[in-house]
Amino acid sequence: MSSLEEFLVFKDVAYTGNITRTSERLHMSQPSVSIHIQNLEKEYGTQFLDRTNRGVTLTESGEVFYGYAKEIVQLICEAREAVLKAATCHHGIRIGATFTIGEYLLPFFLREYYTNEQDADIDVQIADTEILAREIMDKRLHVALIEGPVPDEPNFTVETFWHDELVVVVPSDHPWSASQSISFSELASETLITREQGSGTRKVMELALARSGFNHQDLNIRLELGSTQAIKQAVRCHMGVAVISALTVQEECRLKQMTALRVKDCSFARALSILTHTKGNLTTDEESFLLLLRNRKKLSEILPKPIIP
């Protein structure tokens, strides 16, 4: 009998078209992913995937099975959610947030929420946009606050709750520190420190450059780090410059430890969004928390004013 894990693995391989990518997304070894697929093919007596050097594609049988696999996973997730909701009496908050939002904005939101709802239990998961989108799709999370583009998926509801801007950050003694902006060619001439592939910040930077007619591959990226805090420390150690959220360097700019700059002829503005499942069931506490996030006037009062050139 097929297991839920086998359905989840097959569903992800069909979505990514790449066993290596699925192993990374699900934190499994590549042989384990292959074994799960082989078990399914053996049980159903047919081949679901055509394997090539460039990845995998679904066979005709695989296409049919993919449709059912998605429905099965969806039903199991809905059953888990319904049971959890009944067991918790519709209370508590399970929320995901990307790193920038989770580390630099969410504490302000939670502090404000707790002033009126002191009994609410809140569980926060910090991860990148791709992981949170998958958690929402599988209904392991009800709400995610994200900063990057999400897959075009009809089961997702996305609404903007705040705006942010990426900026170039340099140490206070850097030659650029007296400027308010630099050209793309100047940025490309410096060693650049960035977030890892898959992060919302990285995607926004690359898409913004492309919209302005610049190629992100011209950048001299020498170091990729998985946290904004690590990037800021590397910049302070003069290992290079970085493009990160203006929200994350407010304190350093106020203390004149770092300087934030814009790139000429390129807008790094981005929306910060609430991601939910169109068929998801929110607890009463989660619905109350979203009311706070939708109150622009209140958010402008509780969030610090950004320092942007």
UniProtKB/TrEMBL annotation:
The name of this protein is LysR family transcriptional regulator
What terms describe the molecular function in GO for this protein? DNA-binding transcription factor activity; transcription cis-regulatory region binding
Extent of the signal sequence: none
Tell me the protein family, please: Belongs to the LysR transcriptional regulatory family.
Annotated HTH lysR-type domain residues: 1-59
Known InterPro entries for this protein? Answer: LysR_HTH_N, LysR_subst-bd, WH-like_DNA-bd_sf, WH_DNA-bd_sf
Keywords attached to this Swiss-Prot or TrEMBL record, sorted alphabetically, are: DNA-binding, Transcription, Transcription regulation
Q: Which CDD domains match?
A: PBP2_CysL_like (cd08420)
Q: Record's PROSITE patterns?
A: HTH_LYSR (PS50931)
Which Pfam families does its entry note? HTH_1, LysR_substrate
